């Protein structure tokens, strides 16, 4: 079934119109989950970082001592946004920055022992969030939801690449 999407409305090849709220719902979910996550962190005794900083810490717990350029790619954040967040995290004693050994212009981000010590509490809160996300859903429902969201993300990332390519070609 080929679909044409206009302003939150999907018009199928068969001419059936379905109103959608996906973008609105994703935005609302992001806002509410951020507030809930922050509250759960506080209840768990974690006040050293906020939710968005926790996302960066999560990436660094997966692979420490990485160039900022890698974090830009993995986080999806703009370099200037990431740099400002890392500055606040450095002030809080969560990360350090060092010049790259081969290229002094490259900046490498390292976790501090303080940040490593918070990983367990972060994972505890993340598990609580997962339980909230999938409350009342079967495992099949949860997998379907994740698969659909992966497709939405892939669609948006593909469009973003097209925009960047066009921008390079035009400018």
List keywords for this structure.
about 170 residues; alpha+beta; 3-stranded antiparallel sheet; 7 helices; 6 strands; about 15% strand
Describe what you observe in this structure.
The chain is an alpha+beta fold and 171 residues long. Helices cover 62% and strands 13% of the residues. It is built from 7 helices and 6 strands, in the order E-E-E-H-H-E-H-H-E-E-H-H-H. It has helices spanning 22-43, 51-62, 68-75, 79-91, 113-116, 119-133, 139-170; strands at 3-6, 9-12, 17-19, 66-67, 95-99, 107-111. The strands form 2 sheets. A 3-stranded antiparallel beta sheet has the order 1-2-3, with no helix packed on it. Helix 1 (22-43) packs across helix 6 (119-133). The protein is flat. It starts with a strand and ends with a helix.
Task: Give a quick precis of the structure.
The chain is an alpha+beta fold and 171 residues long.
As a percent range, the share of helical residues equals: 55-70%
Describe the global form: flat
Side-by-side strand order of the widest sheet: 1-2-3
Rg, alpha carbons: 20 Å
Computed structural class: alpha+beta
Profile the largest sheet. 3 strands, antiparallel
Report the end-to-end length measured between terminal Cα atoms. Answer: 37 Å
Instruction: Average the pLDDT over all residues and give the rounded result.
Output: 88
Which residues form runs of ≥5 with pLDDT under 50? none
Give the H and E element order: EEEHHEHHEEHHH
Number of alpha- plus pi-helical segments: 7
Query: What proportion of the residues form beta strands (DSSP E)?
Result: 5-15%
Strand elements, count: 6
